Structure formats: structure tokens, C-alpha cells
Amino acid sequence: MATHKGSEGLVKVGANTVAEIRSWSYEESAETLETTSMGDSARTYVPSLTSWTGSIEAMWDETDTTGQGAFTIGAEITVIFQPEGDTTGDTIKTGTAIVTGRSATGSFDDLVMASISLQGTGALVESVLA
């Protein structure tokens, strides 16, 4: 069984690695359509449309203009989630997303953090890093 440490992963916007990431996530889902008809003894379904969302938490870095700076509200971007790292043969997920949210938080005893929310448009495609 292969396992990976979270610290191996990274996220890219296009070809640019996003700096100072603390965590990231994506969630894929599929809708279903009910096909149950009168006389059936159990509900039945068929798969329908799929969708995905993503989020990124990072230490705010205003100098990362091609990574964090690419996440402007309403922007349509290509995002690449690389859970295993950046080595040939690693599994990656690539998709087009719309930046739907961006926020920053700070407190006197912690770093300033940035949060980014993404809505996928189209499929999130799994492939292997070449």
C-alpha cells in the first residue's frame, strides 16, 4: 500500500507552484437520477452530472504574483493538485476552476493566512505527471 505525507503535495496554477501552502483539498461528486417506477420494490438510480470544488489555505505571500496572485475573484484558471509531489510518474488531478472566494485572516499571535475557494467547471482529470 502506497502512503504519502501531506508535506509532499503541492498545487499549481498553470505551470506556477503556489507558494506557502499549508493545506489544500478537492471534492468530486456525482448527481444521480432516479429510475424507480411503480411496482419496483427498491429505488434505483443512474449516474448523472459530475462536479468538483476545491480549497487552498496558505500563508499570505504578496510576492507570489503567479501563484497566490493568480487567484483573483471570478478568474477562470487551470489548477493542478499534486498529492504525491512533482516527480515523473506521480498522480495528479487537473481541471479548470473559477475562483469563487478569497479571504485573509490574521491575529496578533499567528501568521496572516489566505483562503481560496474554487468551483470546478468541467471534469477534474486524473493523469500521471510526465
Q: Indicate the overall shape.
A: globular
Task: Output the radius of gyration.
Answer: 18 Å
CATH superfamily: Hcp1-like
Structural classification: mainly beta
Oligomer: single chain
CATH class: Mainly Beta
How far apart, in Å, are the first and last alpha carbons?
22 Å
Helix content: under 10%
Number of helical elements: 0
CATH architecture: Roll
One letter per element, helices H and strands E, the order comes to: EEEEEEEE
Query: In percent terms, what proportion of residues is strand?
Result: over 45%
CATH topology: Pnp Oxidase, Chain A
Count the domains.
Answer: 1
Number of strands: 8
Compute the average pLDDT: 96
Poorly predicted runs of 5 or more residues: none
Largest sheet, in brief, is: 8 strands, antiparallel
Describe the structure.
The protein is an all-beta fold. The chain is 0% helix and 53% strand. Strands 1, 2, 3, 4, 5, 6, 7 and 8 form an 8-stranded antiparallel sheet that branches. Strand 6 (91-105) and strand 7 form a beta hairpin.
Structure summarized in a few sentences:
This protein has 130 residues and is mainly β.
